[in-house]
Amino acid sequence: MREDISRHTESFYAATVASDRHCSKLTAEARAQVCVIGGGFTGLAAALELAKRGIRVALLEAGPIAWGASGRNGGQVHVGWRRSQQWLERNIGRDDARHLWKLALDARSHLDELISDHPIDCDFRPGHLHGDHKRRFIPATKAEVEHLREQYDYRHIRFVGHDEVRAMVGTDDYFGGSFDDRGGQLHPLKLALGMADVASSAGASLHPFTRVQSIDRCAAGWRVRADSGTVVCDTVLLACGGYATGLNQSVDAHVMPMNNYIAVTRPLGEKARSIINGSFAVSDSRFVIYYYRLTPDHRLLFGGGESYSYRFPRDIAALVRPHLAKVFPQLSDVEIDYAWGGTLSVTPTRLPFVRQLRPGLFNVSGFSGLGLVLAPYLGKVVGEAIAGERAIFDRLEALPVPSFPGGRWLRWPTLAAAMSFLALRDRL
Hints:
By secondary structure, this protein is of the alpha/beta class. It has a domain at about 10-70 and about 190-255 and about 350-420: FAD/NAD(P)-binding domain (3-Layer(bba) Sandwich). The chain has helices spanning about 10-15, 40-50, 85-90, 95-115, 140-150, 160-170, 190-200, 250-255, 270-275, 315-325, 370-385, 390-395, 405-425; strands at about 30, 35, 55-60, 75, 125-130, 155-160, 175-185, 205, 210-220, 220-225, 230-235, 235-240, 255-265, 280-285, 290-295, 300-305, 335-345, 355-360, 360-365. Strands 4, 5, 6, 7, 13, 14, 15, 16 and 17 form a 9-stranded mixed sheet that branches. A 6-stranded mixed sheet has the order 8-3-2-12-19-18. A 4-stranded mixed sheet has the order 1-11-10-9, with no helix packed on it. A hairpin with a 3-residue loop joins strand 10 (about 220-225) and strand 11. Helix 2 (about 40-50) packs parallel to helix 11 (about 370-385) and helix 3 crosses helix 4. The protein is globular and about 65 Å long. The mean pLDDT is about 95.
């Protein structure tokens, strides 16, 4: 089933936000210093940073602002990268791993600043629980928690044993885990639309419903052709996440789309406390992660299930329900009021693909499921780099992100086969 790009998907988020924004479709040729392609967290943060510096920026989005993953993700606030600090130390070296950890903390602080300084009301609530669904994962979780506490002086995280995790979440699925009080949850569409308001007020020109067709060099710099107009600019930023296919071959080779699905139950009332005993978010140790949380009106928002094309199944609720019931069998027959899918972007190493592809052509994508905190910050970082402050960008550009194997025709089926195999291990 192909998605309707003329409006936000019928999600719990879209149903609980006023999405009328004072920005319009591009209908003519425009001149800007920077053209940002993509109206999610990365593109909005970059546009905001550039506009604050007095740089003329035009942002183009194929659908409504935050139509893609930014406006429909799980709303979970994580601290860190998709890889553990121990993995990073082994693969990029201790000094670079420590620098990445500092950037992760900066990204988390940046989210606080976005929410509080403007301010943006996005229903933020603190706390994140990671649950281990296999007993054999417990030693690694203990080691990672101790490593963060002792080697990085990160005292916000602690190990959670079996009895405590059972008291926190109404499931027998977990044997322990960790709790990070700097993690949390929020309403991602409210955050994105709030960022759009701030960027527009700062002077950025935001153009939803403007699908980009091509990006070409021209005498004046770059010509970005959309279905309804053109932007001529000095610099282009690709911030399309999993929706960039076909715009740039290098991005296509290094960043691949993957679909994930979310269902939201009817309000659970007093029963909600027996599901999650608190306002924290939860995710687990599965390769294809289950993630869930209670909404302010006591629904369970549950993410689970995946696919590897731009077509979504017709009955997303039926796809998610078995995953929800695996964790919470007591909810196997619960009424589901909302169900939707979103396309995120992944890389082979699960580290973001941050690159200057050519002079004046930048890309930031590939957050591999952790874009809620990282994408706004890296959008700010690439905005700084375009303005001439490249120190952080250059460090991120050096991160190891090889291309997917298989070449142009085989990389997608190769990814699907590999991901399906690894997902199978969750069930063994």
